[in-house]
Specification:
By secondary structure, the chain is of the alpha/beta class. It has two domains: 5-163, 3-Layer(aba) Sandwich (Rossmann fold), CATH 3.40.50.720; 174-265, ProC C-terminal domain-like (ProC C-terminal domain-like fold, Orthogonal Bundle). It has eleven helices and eight strands. Helix 6 (140-151) links the parallel strand 7 and strand 8.
Length: 268
């Protein structure tokens, strides 16, 4: 079977996306192609029914969609292998943080069909949040398969490419903020005498419900927060202490640091 969507690289984010796609059933494993430098990784995917390629050149040849899922630090080294068999009809879906559409066009062709994408690890649960920006050469017909692929495990928002670094702390890196907060709060719960698994389930379910409420209630984050800011209450005591210790400043500075690092990666 010739794979429709083919991945260069099979790291954590690719495995998360493929887990979500398996749950959706939109694609069979054989419709997904994989190349990874590790023979053990390729063997594992082959055993699970995926179409495996022995080289980047073979993967790229006559591919409808190629997903570039390597780190910015190594991406330049694989361009010659992509270019050797690259077709003008192939759409590149780039997951490499900081790497612009223009970067590909300068190294492949100036009419290269590139869709820049910031994915999220939450695709693993079928709840991905993908921010994408298309190069001018990507028509609606070109984009159709990319959209089908991404929406099979999450939502897709198209944004201007000028904001593709600014979006990283909003979706791509954001799960880590939540996991960090969960770890701190659950650790504190354990110190207070609670069972770790019980605390984790309570906290995670509450955050899951909070996210769904924010998406479906029609109310702003501020309005929902104010519902809990009761004078003299426990929630207000916590929020006041967080304000006192600079919680908002920490978040804002973290967002800025994330964006700055994305821009740095684009210059490697």
């Amino acid at each position: 079977m010739n794979a429709t969507v083919r991945f260069i690289g099979a790291g954590n984010i690719v495995q998360a996306i493929l887990s979500g796609i398996e749950k959706s059933g939109v694609y069979s494993p054989g419709e997904i192609g994989i190349f990874d430098v590790s023979p053990e990784v390729r063997e594992r995917f082959m055993k699970n029914g995926y179409t495996v390629y022995e080289s980047i050149e073979d993967l790229v040849r006559e591919a409808p969609v190629v997903v570039v899922a390597v780190t910015p630090q190594v991406i330049d080294s694989i361009v010659p292998q992509i270019k050797s068999t690259f077709s003008a009809e192939t759409v590149l879906l780039s997951l490499a943080a900081g790497i612009s559409n223009q970067w590909y066009q300068e190294r492949l062709t100036d009419t290269c069909k590139v869709v820049r994408c910031m994915p999220t690890l939450t695709a693993q649960a079928g709840l991905g949040a993908f921010a994408v920006s298309r190069a001018a050469a990507v028509s609606d017909d070109d984009y159709r398969e990319v959209d089908r692929f991404l929406t099979s495990c999450g939502i897709v928002e198209e944004i201007p490419e000028a904001l593709m670094c600014e979006v990283v702390p909003i979706n791509g890196s954001a799960p880590a903020y939540f996991y960090h907060m969960a770890r701190v709060i659950v650790d504190e719960a354990v110190q207070m005498g609670m069972d770790e698994n019980t605390a984790l389930r309570l906290f995670a379910q509450t955050m899951k419900g909070s996210a769904e409420t924010l998406l479906s209630s029609g109310m702003s984050a501020e309005a929902l927060e104010n519902k809990l800011r009761l004078p003299g209450g426990t929630t207000l005591a916590a929020l006041d202490k967080m304000d006192e210790l600079g919680f908002d400043t920490c978040l804002k500075e973290g967002v800025k640091a994330c964006v700055d690092r994305c821009r740095e990666l684009g210059q490697l």
